[in-house]
Structures are given as C-alpha cells and as structure tokens.
Amino acid sequence: AAVGAAEAARAGLPERATLEACRRDHLRRRELAESVARGRSAAAGSDAAVAAAATALDAALGAAAAARAELERVRVVLRARALVPELVEGEPCPVCGQDVHQVPAQGPPVDLAVAEAAVAGAEVAVEDRRRLLAEAQTHRARVEEKLARVGDELAAVDGRLDGAHGLDAVDAELARVDAAAAALDEARRAERTARAALAAAAAAHEALRGREADARRDFDAARDAVAVLGPPPAGRRDLAADWEELVRWASERSPVLAEEVVAHRRAAEAGRGQVAARLAAVAAACEAAGVDVDPSRWPGEAVAAARARAEADVARLDDQIDEAARLRAERDAATEQHQVADLLAGQLAANRFEKWLLDEALQQLVATASTLLSGLSGGAYALAVDRRSGGFAVVDHTNAGQLRSARTLSGGETFLASLALALALADQVAGIGSGGSARLESLFLDEGFGTLDSDTLDVVATALDELGAGGRMVGVVTHVRELAERLPVRYEVRKVGGSAQVERVEA
Q1: DSSP secondary structure string for all residues of 15-32
Q2: In this structure, is the dihedral angle defined by the CA atoms of residues 352, 353, 355 and 359, taken in order, positive or negative?
Q3: Which of 404, 423, 421, 417 is nearest to 456 (CA)?
Q4: Which residues, other chains included, contact 116 with Cβ-Cβ below 8 Å and sequence gap of 6+?
Q5: CA distances (Å), 328 to each of 170, 316, 342, in order?
Q6: Cβ 94 vs Cβ 119: under 8 Å
Q7: What Å distances lie between residue 387 and 347, 362, 377, 384, 427, CA to CA?
Q8: How would you class 60 by CB atoms within 10 Å of its CB: exposed for 0-12, middle for 13-18, buried for 19 or more?
Q9: SS (HEC) of 117-136
C-alpha cells in the first residue's frame, strides 16, 4: 500500500526528463541572450570599421587619381621638351604647322621616375585599403551570420519555453520530483525488507511442516510394517493420538502373534528343506546348460553373468559384421578408383593422348559446322562423326534424320558442307591453339561455285557478306559472274595478248 501511494504521488508529477529539458532551455536562453547582446555590440563595431575602411579607400583612390594626373602632366611636359630642339625660329612647327616666332625656354626640371613611383605607391595604398575594407566586410558578415544563427536558436528556445514555468518554478518542481522519487525508493526498500521477512517466516513454517511430515512418515512406516495384521485406521489429525491408538492395539495383539510366530517358524523350517531341494535342481539345470554355479552364491547371478557374456559375444559379432561391410565398401571404392586410373593411364599414354585430343577437337569442329550447315541448307542437313570410320557423316533432316556418308552429297551440297567446316575451323582456331593466341583473319575460297544452283548461290553469297561484315576478310576465286558482281570489291583478270591485266572494281 505504501508503494502504491508513493507511485501514485510520483505519477502525479511531471517527468523529470521534461523538467530537465525545460531547465536546460532556460539556462540556454540566458546564454543566447547574452550572446545576442555581445553580437549586437560587435556588429556596431564592425559597421564602424567598415565605414572607416571605406572612407580610407576613397581617400586612397583620390590620392591615386591625383598621382596618375601628375604622372600624365610630367609625361606631357617631357614630350613637349623633347620637341624644343627641333624648333627653328621662322620655320613651321612640326606639331601644329605654324611658324615658330620664338623658341621657348626650358622650364624647371621634372622627374618621371618620381612621378611613376608616386603612382605605384598610391596604387599599393589603394590595394591595402581595399584589402582592409574586404577584411572589415568579411568580419561584419561573420558577425551578422553568427548573430542571425544565435537569434534563430534564441527564437527556437523561446518557442519551446512558450507557456512554460519560470526557472525557479522548474527548480521547485524538480525538487518535488526528487522528493517523490526518494519516497518511492524508500517505500520499495521497505517492501523488499517486508517481503524478505515474509519469505523467512514462510521458510520456517515450511521447515516445521517438513518435520511434521517426517514424523508422519515414521508413523506410516511403523503402521505399514504391521498392516497385514489389521491395525486400526489412523485419524490423521492428531499424530500423538494416532501413535497411542497404534501402541494400544499392538499390546493387545502381541500375545496372539507370539503363538503364531512359533507355528510359522515350524513351517519355515519345512520350507527351507524344499528350497534346498529346488536350488539343487536349478544348479543341475545350469550345469547341463554349461553355466558354472558357485554353491555359496545364488544361481541367478551365474545365469545373469552367462547371459551378459552371450550378449557381449553377439555385440562383438555384429561389430565384426559391420567392419566386414565397411571393408567391402572400401574394396569396391578402391577397385573403382583403380579402374578409373587404368582408363586414364590408357587415355594419357603417348600413343593415345594425341588421338584423344584430336577426337575432342573434331567433335567441337563438327558441332560448330553443323550449326553453320543447318543455316546454309535451310535446316536440311547437319554434320556428325561416323564412329566406325572416323569420317564425316551427314544427318539428313529431310529424310527423318537419316545418317549417311558425306560422300553421298551432291556437288553443291558438298560445297556447302566444306564451307561450313572451313568457317567452323576458322572460328575455333583460337580455342584449339595454345593460349588462344591464334586467329584466322582471312579466308580464301577457290572455285566450287559452279556446282551451285541460283538459290544455293544466293545463300552462299549472303553468308559471305555476313562474314565480311563481321570483320573477317573473305577472298573468292570464281568464274561465276553472278557471284562476282555481288562482291563489294573485286579484281578482274583479263587476258590481253600474251599477258594478263588485273583491274580493281568496286560495286
């Protein structure tokens, strides 16, 4: 109840985190207000510094303009004086063209270097004033930026403090929260102490109940020992009364039971004789079964030991059967590895390894050539390797995939098959060569086109165009004019008298 009251009192107060956040905002607002005041003072000082720097710059610009004007005047004077030696009285002036009445006299000396130095110094002063003005403006911008940032933060803090209590009220509220939290902690400590005392009392009570249960078990054991004799039922409310009733019953039954004991002992003697006879029969049966029995010990022990030995023998035989199965599996695996090793040894032999490589290359070549031949023949034919002869065979898809010798092809069909093989070989040279370094960039076809009909010739011409478009140079030697005219660039050879003439022709 005390903990509940303390928790209710604490729950009625604000969260400490909220109060602490409000207190931090109050303190931060005080710091920000001071920063704003200092910032405004610094802004006023920076404005004054900018104004002073601007005034100094204007003065330096005026001085520089005066120095440049003086330099120009000196230059004009020097140019005029340079013309005086050229003037002759009575002669026209080389500048204005009028007659010179009198040669002017030289005026006071002027120094061009001094005027130029004055201009350079004035320009240096201007750059210094500009630099000072830029620095003052930069400083003022920084002050204004910081003042704006602090103002924004101050506005944000003021927004959070809008409607909040003052700092003193927040501190007082925090003190009440701390007092309520301390009271709640104290109530919880008192609750834990009370619960510990309750647990100790419960433990002591449980210990007493245990001692009572032990005493009740002792009574039950004593009563159970004579249960066959029909003791009176226990009330199980008063342990002492139950003991008194059991003792009274035992006193009454003791004389009667003493007489019964004498009779039972006589019967036991007779029974022992029967037991001895039966043990002798069991021992004889064990001996007949091959089990050695110690006369001084119970025969069942020898039987159990013999059974354990028999079970151990069975387990050992099972283990040996499992080991035999494992060895047979290892033998089969070793036999398989031996067969694979023999096969590899035969394939890698010096007289068979080259053939194996060539067979693999031939299979790859035929696979690629079959794809090309299928495209050239409109899906009619594909190539294969005759396993019996090792030569090329043709799969005739127009005749239910019949496999027949490549020698049965017509002239045009043979040309298409040869072209497919040549193109496949050109494509796979890089793969067959060591390291993929070899590549056939050029391919020359010498005649054979005369055996083609017009449709097949058109298919071959299209295939040659595609090869040329793929970056490979294809050369064709032919007398078929129809094919020659489809080539983009050709060289025509004509007989002229006793010689030959070669002419390049572009389509």
Answers
A1: PHHHHHHHHHHHHHHHHH
A2: positive
A3: 417
A4: 71
A5: 90, 18, 21
A6: no
A7: 17, 12, 24, 9, 24
A8: buried
A9: HHHHHHHHHHHHHHHHHHHH
Q: Residue 374 and residue 416: Cα distance in Å, rounded?
A: 10
Helix (H) or strand (E) holding 503: strand 499-506
Residue 495, Ramachandran bin (φ over 0: left; ψ between -120 and 50: alpha; else beta): beta
For residues 36 and 151, the answer to whether their CB atoms sit within 8 Å is yes
Q: Which residue pairs, CB below 8 angstroms and at least 24 apart, start in 151-158?
A: 151/36, 153/28, 153/32, 154/29, 154/32, 154/33, 154/36, 157/25, 157/28, 157/29, 157/32, 158/29
Residues 239-266: pLDDT tens digits? Answer: 888 888 888 888 888 888 888 888 888 8
Dihedrals phi, psi of 506, to nearest 5 degrees: -110, 135
Q: In the chain, what is the greatest distance between 2 CA atoms, to the nearest angstrom? A: 193
Where would I find the H helices in 84-166?
A: 112-161
What are the structure tokens assigned to 292, written together? 């050695």
The type of residue at 172 is A
- Which residue from 25, 39, 30, 40 is spatially nearest to 156, judged by alpha carbons? 25
Helix (H) or strand (E) holding 506: strand 499-506
pTM, 2 dp: 0.32
Written in H, E and C, the secondary structure of 410-478 is CHHHHHHHHHHHHHHHHHHHHHHCHHHCCCCCEEEEECCHHHCCHHHHHHHHHHHHHHHHCCCEEEEEC
Instruction: Tell me the C-alpha distance between 33 and 20, whole Å.
Output: 20
CB atoms within 10 A of CB 420: 26
Q: What are the phi and psi torsion angles at 478 (to 5°)?
A: -150, 155
pLDDT tens-place string over residues 415-444: 788 888 888 887 777 565 555 555 667 778
